[in-house]
Structure formats: C-alpha cells, structure tokens
Amino acid sequence: PPRSTLVPYTTLFRSLAFSTAGSLISSDVRSIGSYFTRDSVLFWGSEVSPWTGLGLAVGTGLLFVWANALWEEIAFRGFSLETMGTGYSSLTFGLAHLPNMLIPGISVEDTVLQTIAATGFGFYSAELTKQNGYRLEKAAAFHFWNNMLALVLGYLSDPDDTTGFYIGYRFSR
Q1: In the chain, N or C terminus with fewer CB closer than 10 Å?
Q2: How far apart are CA 58 and CA 171, in angstroms?
Q3: In terms of Cα–Cα distance, which of 57, 44, 128, 45 is closest to 86?
C-alpha cells in the first residue's frame, strides 16, 4: 500500500505498545508467571485448569470488553468530544471511573489511580480521534486492546480474588 495509508496505523501501533507497557507495569508479573504452574484456578467461582480459565477469560472478555470500549468511545469521544471539547471529554471519562471504588476488593486508592490513568487515556484517545477526522475506529481499537489486556493480566495475576471481571488497574495489595 502507499505510504499515506500506512502512516496513520503507526500511531495506533505506538498506542498499543504504550497501553501494553502500562498494563504490564501495573500487573504483578511474578504472579502471572505462577498462574500456569497451578493445578487449578477459579473462574467465576468454579475450579478449572489454568488454560481453560485463560480461554474463558479471553472469550468472555472479548464480548464484554468490545461492548464497553465501543460504548465509552461513542459517549466520550463521539458525543462529548465533538460538543464539549478535549478537556471536558477526557475529564468526564476519567471521573466516570470513580464508581469503581464501590466494587468489592477495589480500594479508593486504586480507583483514584485508575481515574488519573483514565483521564490521561481520555486525552490521548481524544487526540487520536481528532487526528483520524473524528472517526472512532482507532480510539475504539486502542480502548479495546487496553481493556482486554488489563482484564487478562488482572485475571492471570489473581484468579482467586475475582469472582467476575474487573477492568482497570490494581496498584496495591
């Protein structure tokens, strides 16, 4: 393909690399490594093999994460960005993560850190959307990858602590 069609995708690839690095930093990599040495893990309260648990987490996550990422991109980069601007869109996106502190096992500190990270994510996604002529495909793909990676790494690092899924960052224990 001509270079002009490749250039926009380099931005998306950089975004995915940035998101991957952030998710790995916020995960307990040692516990992820020990996940596969276990005889069984929990998935929604049922004991399954580690590979089955990972498959179920990824499969279930694909559906939930895509729906969540797409809805949030439409709301915050679609309607909000075009009508209220980058600052409002990004701040409200970050603040929309504050109710996560009501989830059992998610601390106020973790929620505040996630809110700050989500606000930064919102600014980046807003710029990505504007660079793409206010089309949401790249921001939605970036959002999907970010959330999917956070979900899978969160599950791998602590499958016994989750009875469902959480999407976001857990910085403390």
Answers
A1: N
A2: 22
A3: 128
Per DSSP (E only), the strands in the chain are 41-43, 46-48
- Residues comprising the chain, all counted: 173
What is residue 44's three-state secondary structure?
coil
Residue 41's DSSP bridge partners are 48
Q: What are phi and psi of 48, to 5 degrees?
A: -140, 170
CB 8 within 8 A of CB 138: yes
Mean pLDDT, range 18-41, rounded to an integer: 68
- Side chain identity, residue 36: F
Q: What is the Rg, in whole angstroms, of the alpha carbon atoms belonging to the chain?
A: 17
Find where tokens 């403390």 sit: 172
- 108-158 tens-digit pLDDT: 887 888 888 889 889 988 988 888 888 888 888 888 888 888 778 777 777
* Cα separations in angstroms, 21 against 24, 84, 107, 146: 5, 30, 23, 10
